[in-house]
Design a protein that fits this description.
mainly alpha
């Protein structure tokens, strides 16, 4: 199933940049993945 082919790569990149994030919130894939990922990153920095 390749419905979200880039999502794993985006998360891998985030984990590479920000370090291990074992408690990273699940992304609601019904939303825009990039916008949702940006929201998750913003929350993680707060």
């Amino acid at each position: 199933d390749r419905a979200q082919p880039d999502l794993t790569g985006l998360f891998a990149h985030v984990q590479f940049v920000n370090g291990p994030m074992p408690n990273l919130p699940k992304v609601d894939v019904s939303l825009d993945p990039v916008k949702e990922l940006s929201r998750v990153i913003s929350e993680g920095k707060n």
